[in-house]
Specification:
It contains 17 helices and no strands. With 627 residues, the protein is mainly α. Belongs to the CCDC93 family.
Length: 627
């Protein structure tokens, strides 16, 4: 297309600035990563709108646009797309104002700051989400693949964990002493800390140096010739160390006294021991003797020999091993049973979850179908279904009652048959009973048959009523299915609009072809006519024109008349062209008015849909309150 020019034939300065801004916008979009802006076949509107949509979606905001690309959109489509883009900008807190007609009219001077801000925001969003996307990619990679270092780590992981657990179990703190319950309470925090550490066999305070180290320190001090102040500091340190040792010894004495108290047996413990069986008494006595010997050994180890002390320790350790082994077997058996119960419970939980998810899906599908249906028809259908279920339950109850009644009647019939037997008759007659008893029995049988036929006829009528209700329910189902839902109507409307647009486009193209053909045909007819006339006159007059000067002048006048006729034909065609141009301008004005009406229609439809949605929400709230 040619660039608009001013009165002097030069381009407008504003158009030059628009082109400069368009170039800057495309460069910004390409630098941000939107490489579709390089495609030369796309129009500037498609490039700019596509770039703005790409920036908005990159910033994690939604834009209601068609997924499929559509070239050469109409003005209404461009305005609708521009309105959707402009409606998103306030939610993104864009500091620049932009109107839909500015995007549709390609006002790049006002579009440039918005695109510049969107590109900046998109780059910031990419930087913020880069680490997250990278970590997500790494996690997705690790779900399917693994590196050799990871495989080695997984192989060594279980063994390393087991080793760490074993080491922590072996070297964990173990309590060796315990304070007496009646001992005096420690008031200062430092004493309580030292007492707690001593219970676990740890001593903290001044370091205990060996005699050789002290002697060496004294020799070094004498050799170096310490001053009187340094000697006084050393003496003060020795005194503090002695006081610390004395306090630790006092704490240990209280703990040792507590251990001696625990080694004695109280009267209650003796009574409990006596109450046990003899085998357990022997075992407890032996354990008590061993503990007593161990305590005596700990108190005075110098009185026992090394071999005897070692033997007692070995026996004690063997007994502990046996006890721990039994305890381990019990724990293993308990663990096996608990594992089986856990697997069974887990399987049951999985089945229940699957069934629950299935029920949730079916319930959601039913609620979705129920929300689309007409409430009045749905309520009527519910009443009919409830009636049908009630009739079915009544039918089942009536069948059960009929079976019971039939069983009872059959039993009575059997009893009557037994009474009506020949020997029964003889016995009755011989016993002197009245002969009218047989007649009363027959009357009772007839009564039972009549009641049975009445109940059978009643059952038949109930079945006919049930069949009639089922037919009515089926008819209502068919009527409900025949009425299209709102979603189907919207889908039909969209399809009809698409077909209308396709037909309109084909009709417009065909009309243009017809117009072009008629124009070219008229042009051809005029040219052929002019050529034939011109050649004929030229051929006839050229021979005579060369004969004399008068004939030559007449030939020139004829040529001027031909030229004048051509000019008149040209003026007629120009006049016809002006008329067609005026008609085209009128049609264009009508077309713009129709586009404005179309835009107003789309806006009204959008508002109507919003009001319809609000109406449905209010109706649902009213129904919820009513229910």
């Amino acid at each position: 297309t040619a660039t608009p020019q001013g009165p002097g034939g030069q381009p407008h300065p504003e158009d030059e600035e628009q082109n400069v801004k368009l170039t800057e916008i495309l460069e910004l979009l390409v630098a941000a990563g939107y490489f579709r802006a390089r495609i030369k076949g796309l129009s500037p509107f498609d490039k700019v709108v596509g770039g703005m949509t790409w920036c908005i979606t990159t910033c994690n905001f939604d834009v209601d646009v068609d997924l499929l690309f559509q070239e050469n959109s109409t003005i209404g489509q461009k305005i609708a797309l521009s309105e959707k883009i402009v409606s998103v900008l306030p939610r993104m807190k864009c500091p620049h104002q932009l109107e839909p007609h500015q995007i549709q009219g390609m006002d790049f001077i006002h579009i440039f700051p918005v695109v510049q801000w969107l590109v900046k925001r998109a780059i910031e969003t990419k930087e913020e989400m880069g680490d997250y996307i990278r970590s997500y990619s790494v996690s997705q990679f690790q779900k399917t693949y693994s590196l050799p270092e990871d495989d080695d780590f997984i192989k060594r992981k279980e063994k390393a964990i087991k080793t760490v657990v074993d080491l922590s179990e072996v070297y964990k703190p173990r309590r060796k002493y315990k304070r007496h319950q009646g001992a005096e309470e420690l008031l200062d925090e430092e004493s309580r800390i030292h007492a707690t550490l001593l219970e676990y066999g740890r001593r903290y305070g001044f370091s205990r140096q060996s005699e050789t180290e002290k002697a060496e320190d004294k020799k070094t001090a004498l050799a170096a010739g310490l001053s009187a102040t340094e000697k006084a500091d050393a003496h003060e340190e020795d005194e503090l160390r002695a006081a610390e040792e004395q306090r630790i010894q006092s704490l240990m004495t209280k703990m040792t006294a507590m251990a001696n108290e625990e080694s004695r047996l109280t009267a209650s413990s003796v009574g409990q021991i006596v109450g046990l069986c003899s085998a357990e008494i022997k075992q407890i006595v032996s354990e008590y003797a061993e503990k007593q010997s161990e305590l005596s050994t700990e108190e005075s180890p110098e009185k026992l020999g090394t071999s005897q002390l070692h033997r007692r320790k070995v026996i004690s350790l063997n007994k502990q091993i046996v006890q721990k082994t039994k305890h381990l077997e019990e724990l293993r058996a308990n663990h096996t049973s608990l594992q089986a119960r856990y697997n069974e419970a887990k399987k049951t939980l999985t089945e229940l979850k699957t069934y629950s998810e299935k029920l949730d899906k079916e319930q959601a599908a039913l609620e979705k179908i129920e929300s689309k249906a007409d409430p009045s028809i749905l309520q009527n259908l519910r009443a009919l279904v409830a009636m049908n279920e009630n009739l079915k339950s009544q039918e089942q109850e009536f069948k059960a009652h009929c079976r019971e009644e039939m069983t009872r009647l059959q039993q009575e019939i059997e009893n009557l048959k037994a009474e009506r037997a020949p020997h029964g008759d003889e016995k009755t007659l011989s016993s002197g009973e009245p002969p009218g008893t047989l007649t009363s029995a027959m009357t009772h049988d007839d009564d039972l048959d009549r009641r049975y036929n009445m109940e059978k006829e009643k059952l038949y009528k109930i079945r006919l009523l049930q069949a009639r209700r089922n037919r009515e329910i089926a008819i209502l189902h068919r009527k409900i299915d025949e009425v299209p839902s709102r979603a189907e109507l919207i889908q039909y409307q969209k399809r009809f609009i698409e077909l209308y647009r396709q037909i309109s486009a084909v009709h417009k193209e065909t009309k243009q072809f017809f117009t072009l053909y008629n124009t070219l045909d008229d042009k051809k007819v005029y040219l052929e006519k002019e050529v034939r006339t011109f050649m004929k006159r030229k051929w006839l007059s050229s021979q005579q024109a060369m004969a004399s000067p008068a004939a030559r002048d007449q030939f020139l006048r004829q040529m001027e008349q031909i030229v004048e006729g051509i000019k008149q034909s040209r003026m007629k065609m120009e006049k016809k062209k002006q008329e067609n141009k005026m008609r085209r301008d009128q049609l264009n004005d009508q077309y713009l008015e129709l586009l404005e009406k179309q835009r107003l229609y789309f806006k009204t439809v959008k508002e109507f849909k919003e009001e319809g949605r609000k109406n449905e929400m209010l109706l649902s709230k009213v129904k919820a309150k009513a229910s």
